[in-house]
Design goal:
By secondary structure, the chain is of the alpha/beta class. About 50% of the residues lie in helices and about 10% in strands. It is built from 20 helices and 13 strands. It binds arginine.
């Protein structure tokens, strides 16, 4: 369905043209003064200059031309030259009725679906997931869901950090502890065992121990670097160990992401890009882009229009080792080869923005990506504690994601068991569902690039702009609908009738903004716009609920119309929270 604002603009444009003014003046926007009108057009003010006429006169003419137009219940000139508009209740009821008949609530699928790859998550193998990875997972998942819902082919890639010193550190520590393992026998030529020689718990202890030791002991660090080099240059035993590390880690990561309702189409890692590096580097040299500077191989990426200095993109270190940059560029090589994406979106900490500017420019300049492939960086801010500093455990350490999720679960459970007569089991399950909404909505309702304070008390509140408030609203609607069904009535095929009260009209206006809100969130890669939309919709619903006696309505036709509105509100809210990556319980 076409968006309400488009339809209104069309009518107002026609009116401007019929009065002898240019089309471009007919643009309508949402009202800045909801107390006066629902929509407004400021075109008369602009036209006044061009036509040398008082703006109010133009607004009056256009308002006159709109008289009798069934779309509006009000088209009023207002000083100095605004045109204030209200939709007619009949038009709105018809529009909302059509939305409810449409499987996508009036949102059209895109005509030309794009292939969009989304690089998010970015966990590092063998290191536990920590809260820093939370934002990438939550935001990336939502961007992907919004893109898919619009009709695009979206492919999420977790882009594991599985290639670097951390692997050498683990291998070094293992060798120290279990030198007799077959992986360390240089003469061994047989098959390696299928079982890993460690569990995830051990792995998570080994890495920080090794990392700590390497900081104290230069010889240890030397050994880890040597192990990393050997791993990357064909040591069979080490490569078999790497496979074990990956398997054990990935199994654990999948479980963690599943708990967050986050999933990836691709589980590729930095290591998957390595085979593409030699040819890529050779080509950069052959084409004359890469040159040696202070021993390192670099590509210039600065541009004349740069306000600040953009340093060259480093491709190889002086010892020939590849870097984070090299891997990201080589990853683009296989992404182009295998998927030829129209767009690649990176959801990464905003502190990596300069880095990605270098990588994008380098990829474009050296022809790794086609000119029509868009590279987009969605940088997110830091999640802070209530003290305004990066989120830490009470002891000041890095907080593990699992710990954080468990804390919120616990908090939610206490709240739910306190005001309910639910069984222990139901309360636990419900708490999990609601807690996830608290965490995700708490994050997604902020513009991604901003830092935000992770405030468990506020996020878990059933009131205010929170996930639990949205869920509470959905549960309330479900419960009314259950009561209605239990009374033996059915609203099937009933008509949504023109609003008779202000709160009913507001709810319908809010519903009618669905397609515009989702399109906006997609175009701006901005899940917070979905949050803003459902917060407004939930508020509009709750006002409607308090001001209208839905179950007590004696006129059955009217009541059935209400029920249809409720169903549509529930469906749209549920669709939207699915785009945000969480769901609603049956009751709470
Ligand atoms: N593993 C990285 C980290 O933990 C994030 C990866 C981001 N994505 C990328 N393509 N570089 O910081």
């Amino acid at each position: 369905m076409r968006e309400v604002l488009t339809l209104i603009t069309e009518e107002v444009t026609k009116a401007f043209v019929s009065c002898g003014y240019e089309e471009k003046y007919g643009k309508v926007s949402l009202s800045n003064r909801p107390d006066l009108c629902e929509f407004q057009c400021n075109g008369a003010m602009a036209a006044a200059k061009a036509y040398k006429k008082a703006p109010i006169l133009i607004a009056q003419e256009v308002a006159e031309a709109l008289k009798g137009n069934g779309m509006f219940s009000m088209a009023e000139p207002c000083k100095p030259g605004f045109l204030n508009l209200k939709l007619s209740e009949e038009f709105l009821a018809k529009y909302v009725g059509e939305m409810s008949e449409d499987g996508r609530f009036g949102l059209e699928t895109v005509e030309k679906p794009k292939t969009i790859m989304i690089d998010y998550g970015g966990p590092n193998v063998a290191k536990p997931l920590h809260v820093g990875h939370l934002r990438s997972a939550i935001i990336g998942e939502s961007i992907k869901r919004i893109g898919k819902y619009m009709g695009h082919n979206c492919i999420g890639d977790v882009h594991l950090g599985d290639w670097g010193l951390q692997m050498g550190l683990i291998i070094t520590e293992l060798k120290l502890r279990q030198p007799d393992l077959v992986y360390f026998d240089p003469d061994y030529t047989g098959e390696y065992p299928k079982e890993a020689p460690f569990t995830i718990g051990e792995l998570e202890e080994i890495y920080p121990t090794a990392s700590g030791k390497s900081k104290e002991d230069p010889a240890y660090k030397e050994a880890a670097m040597a192990a990393t080099y050997e791993l990357q240059h064909g040591n069979r035993g080490y490569q078999a160990l790497l496979k074990h590390i990956l398997d054990v880690s990935v199994t654990d990561l999948k479980k963690n992401y599943e708990n967050l309702n986050v999933s990836f189409e691709l589980w590729k890692g930095e290591s998957d890009a390595q085979p593409y590096i030699p040819d890529m580097v050779q080509k950069m040299k052959d084409d004359g882009y890469a040159y040696i500077s202070e021993g390192a191989l670099v590509v210039d990426v600065k541009e004349d229009s740069d306000a600040k200095e953009i340093p060259p993109c480093m491709i190889l270190k002086s010892d020939g080792a590849s870097l984070y940059n090299t891997t990201d560029l080589a990853t683009l090589v296989w992404r182009m080869k295998d998927y030829h994406p129209d767009e690649v979106i990176y959801v990464v900490d905003k502190r990596q923005e300069l880095y990605f500017t270098q990588v994008f420019r380098c990829a474009r300049k050296t022809g790794i990506v086609d000119p029509d492939t868009e590279l987009k960086f969605v940088g997110f801010g830091t999640m802070n504690g209530k003290d305004g500093r990066p989120f830490k455990t009470r002891e000041g350490g890095v907080m593990r994601l699992e710990t954080l999720v468990n804390e919120v679960d616990e908090k939610m459970y206490e709240k739910i068991i306190e005001n309910h007569t639910m069984s222990e089991e139901e309360a636990r399950n419900t708490a999990k569902i609601v807690a996830l909404s608290a965490i995700k909505y708490g994050d997604l309702s902020n513009q991604a690039s901003k830092d935000y304070v992770f405030d468990v008390d506020r996020f878990t509140s059933f009131e205010g702009n929170t996930g639990p408030y949205i869920l509470y609203t959905i549960v309330r609607i479900k419960s009314i609908l259950k009561k209605y069904a239990a009374s033996g009535k059915s609203a099937e095929g009933a008509e949504i009738l023109p609003a008779e009260t202000a709160s009913q009209k507001d709810l319908m206006l809010s519903l009618s903004q669905f397609n515009a809100a989702i399109r906006g969130a997609y175009e701006e890669t901005a899940p917070h716009k979905v949050c803003a939309y459902i917060y407004e919709l939930a508020n509009a619903f709750n006002r409607f609920y308090h001001e209208n006696n839905i179950m007590g309505e004696a006129d059955e036709k009217k009541q059935a119309g209400f029920v249809r509105l409720l169903e549509l509100t529930r469906d749209i809210l549920e669709q939207c929270i699915d785009l945000l990556g969480f769901e609603a319980p049956e009751r709470m």
